[in-house]
Specification:
By secondary structure, the chain is of the alpha+beta class. It contains 24 helices and 18 strands. Strands 1, 6, 7, 8, 9, 10 and 11 form a seven-stranded antiparallel beta sheet that branches. The protein has a four-stranded antiparallel beta sheet with strand order 2-3-4-5.
Length: 617
């Protein structure tokens, strides 16, 4: 159950950006454009050759068998086939806040999640019932759930938390104000929770992807994720081509950065990232550097002054430790974690102690034996030097501190002597993997500019507008017709009061990619604000075809139709919006107005009562 709010990390990073810490690296002179573009084409042209993990079973039966019990192999499943670790009988309801109740229901027809809107008297105003189709996560810490709607995968507001044995709001959901059942499961999340994905068409860098009716070719993280596509390897052994080059990758034989990248492709989220030009998340292959595929920024260790940590910051923590730095590449994830199996709880202490002893067998613990065996460590190296920290961004869970502390409890304002700077606030953002896989200066500028623009678009960071513009304009000197940069620059122009220039950028972006969701949405909003209902309707219709599950689009389309005098069509659109999101008073007000105008007295009375209840909470 990964998923933490990357926006908060980006905001923290950009607070340092605005202080001028990035200026020196931002304005590098960009190289000639052909180099990176040719590299992207070569990268994308590699054959796939994926067979699925079952193809490995014949020759690697024991490893295959043990790996099936590994959390990575159980990272995604249908709700029907997922091992039942949840309690579907007791405590399946909770309220957060008092005006909303959530309920989980398992029937012969499937699993359903409910959101019930409650009046101030506790009466049910609405009960929205949503089917959930996929379980995300092995269940060791918890599970989140996906619903498949109109070709899109959306995250449910409800998750299961194993340690507390309870249902609660999903990570990133705040009580009373969240995306309910319309939060998109992004490609970045899915690529790290599913083995192989069946996209509908070519996946784009837009937030919302389209998937085939069966979206997963392989559910759990499979063998090929760490060892590369197996088709050539299987053919080589099947046909006895002993002298041909074996394409399969053994990560332990890679240089340290490429070896670690196999794990880091999913276990390093960083403070923010952007895909490199021409790349997609599923392009990564074992043997690549991370920097071959995306520009990723890291800062600090994710451990805050209060002692909590972010859920996916293991890499930054480990790399801050003396153990990692002084090992000169020997220490990596697989030094302690067997990628094919997880030790039983009864063997956990022995397993990890033996891993520590590989490097520290000549160094005895300085504590007396009686203290070593005392709680909470009880003779365990990692329970003493890698204590559990609360996960600040995932409720009801803890995370292992990977800083490998010499002192188990250093003061929060004083980094342990065995680590580099501890807190997120204490570190300067940097491009991860930048020295091992150098990224062209203009692509770094592009990535930073796009991240700044994301924050500006979200409604924050106005002081960063000029800086974002400088970065993106410098990058556009190399790639003038980059759709993502055009979209980002349009929002910057809008923030600068240059509406005509913003509209021009969005039109140009759509000329390059007619299905680009951001410009379609922006132009629909612009023309609606200008009272140009005809143009607004055109863009909303195009957008609804791509994203039919979005309640706000149907609501806005209904408003446009009402202003055009098309009240019956407006009512139909408003009813769709209400079915998809019955929690919004604005939709009820629109429905009430339309029913009244059409003389639907009975429906008006029903909606009027619901509206009073919603507004009275």
């Amino acid at each position: 159950m990964r998923m933490w709010n990357a926006k908060m990390a980006i905001l923290a990073m950009l607070g340092l950006v605005s202080a001028g810490l990035f200026v020196a690296v931002m304005m590098r002179v960009p190289p000639a454009p052909s180099t990176s573009d040719q590299g992207a084409v070569a990268h994308m042209s590699r054959p796939a050759g994926y067979l699925g993990s079952a193809a490995c079973r014949e020759c690697h039966s024991e490893i295959y068998r043990t790996y099936q019990q590994h959390p990575m192999a159980q990272s995604m499943a249908t709700v029907e086939t997922a091992s039942e670790i949840e309690d579907y009988r007791n405590g399946t309801e909770f309220q957060r806040p008092k005006s909303r109740q959530y309920r989980v229901e398992r029937t012969a027809e499937g699993v359903f999640h409910h959101e019930l809107g409650l009046s101030i008297d506790g009466e049910t105003i609405y009960d929205q019932k949503v089917p959930v189709h996929f379980a995300v996560g092995s269940g060791r810490r918890g599970r989140s759930y996906l619903t498949q709607q109109d070709g899109t995968l959306l995250v449910s507001a409800i998750s299961w938390y194993t340690a507390e044995k309870c249902w609660d709001l999903s990570p990133g959901y705040q009580p009373g104000k969240h995306q309910r059942f319309e939060r998109v499961a992004t490609a970045r999340c899915l690529e790290c929770h599913a083995g192989r994905i069946a996209y509908q068409g070519t996946p784009t860098t837009d937030l919302v992807q389209q998937y085939k009716s069966v979206p997963f070719v392989e559910f759990g993280i499979g063998c090929e994720r760490c060892h590369g596509p197996g088709e050539s390897h299987v053919a080589r052994h099947r046909d006895g081509l002993a002298e041909s080059t074996d394409s399969i990758v053994n990560p332990t034989k890679l240089d340290p950065f490429r070896r670690d990248a196999v794990c880091n492709q999913c276990h390093l989220q960083g403070a923010g990232h952007q895909l490199r030009v021409g790349r997609r998340y599923h392009d990564f292959r074992p043997g690549d550097h991370l920097g071959d595929n995306w520009t990723l920024f890291v800062m600090g260790t994710g451990v805050g002054e209060e002692g909590g940590t972010t859920a996916i910051s293991h890499v930054e923590q480990m790399q801050s430790s003396s153990c990692y730095r002084e090992s000169r590449g020997k220490l990596g994830c697989a030094s302690c974690h067997d990628p094919h199996s997880v030790p039983d709880e009864s063997r956990r202490r022995e397993h990890f102690n033996s891993r520590c002893a590989r490097c520290h067998e000549q160094i005895d613990c300085a504590l007396p034996a009686s203290e070593r065996q005392a709680a909470p460590s009880r003779g365990s190296c990692i329970d003493c030097h890698m204590p559990r920290l609360s996960a600040a961004d995932v409720p009801h869970t803890v995370q292992t501190d990977h800083r490998l502390l010499r002192s188990p409890h250093p003061p929060p304002d004083q980094p342990d002597e065995s680590t580099s700077a501890d807190t997120t606030a204490a570190a300067e953002p940097r491009v991860f993997d930048g020295q091992e896989a150098p990224i062209a200066g203009w692509e770094v500028q592009r990535a930073k500019g796009l991240m700044l623009a994301e924050v500006i678009q979200a409604g924050g960071g106005k002081p960063l507008v000029d800086q974002a513009e400088q970065l993106l304009n410098a990058a556009r000197a190399v790639r003038a017709d980059d759709v993502e940069m055009l979209d980002a620059l349009a929002f910057i122009r809008l923030n600068q009061g240059e509406t005509a220039a913003a509209v021009e950028h969005w039109h140009r972006a759509l000329a390059l990619d007619s299905q680009r969701q951001g410009p379609l949405d922006a132009l629909a909003t612009y023309f609606q604000s200008q009272g140009n209902e005809t143009e607004a309707a055109k863009y909303l219709q195009r957008l609804i075809k791509i994203l039919p599950w979005r309640a706000d689009l149907h609501f806005r389309y209904s408003q446009v139709l009402e202003r055009q005098g098309k009240r019956k069509q407006a009512l139909e659109a408003a009813q769709i919006a209400h079915r998809r999101d019955p929690s919004r008073p604005a939709v009820c007000r629109l429905l009430l107005r339309l029913h009244n105008s059409l003389g639907n007295r009975g429906q008006s009375d029903v909606i009027r009562r619901k509206l009073r209840q919603l507004e009275g909470r």
